[in-house]
């Protein structure tokens, strides 16, 4: 807990100093995830555009989007909800009076693990399994989201680390399962 507090103080300590940084932190913590979801919609649109003659028509992005959403929703609304029922942890702004809270947030909600971290890292892991370049961009955006969640004062560093790891692990396992299922369908 001491290391958690020290890391939290470093990241959250920048909050409230520069309005532009506060705005950027709020944007990343709240709205950047919507941009990632919008990108998924763009992949679906790309799947329905006319295909090149040399490449057969397929639904590569449709499968990627569906699998990434299944993984993200599973880890967020099943696994994380189980954690929420088993463990309760106060958010930093409740526990620590010196926290800079930049967002209105429910003080009675548990913070461990981060649902945002688990959701976006599961999403990124599945996408990385399909397309490394796009997956890296999704990972970078997911990292910005979780750092911003600490910056705005709603999560401890260990909340986002455990959330990210659970998202990566579940995404990796489901990616293996989805690939196995796709191979079996072709047989």
From TrEMBL:
The keyword Cell membrane applies. Residues 65-175 form the Phosphatidic acid phosphatase type 2/haloperoxidase domain. GO terms for molecular function: hydrolase activity. It is a multi-pass membrane protein. The chain crosses the membrane at residues 24-45, 65-88, 108-129, 136-154, 160-178. Gene3D superfamilies: Phosphatidic acid phosphatase type 2/haloperoxidase. GO terms for cellular component: plasma membrane. Keywords: Cell membrane, Hydrolase, Membrane, Transmembrane, Transmembrane helix. InterPro entries: PAP2/HPO, PAP2/HPO_sf. SMART domains: acidPPc. It is found in: Cell membrane. This is Phosphatidic acid phosphatase type 2/haloperoxidase domain-containing protein. It comes from Candidatus Staskawiczbacteria bacterium RIFCSPHIGHO2_01_FULL_34_27. The lineage of its organism: Bacteria, Candidatus Staskawicziibacteriota.
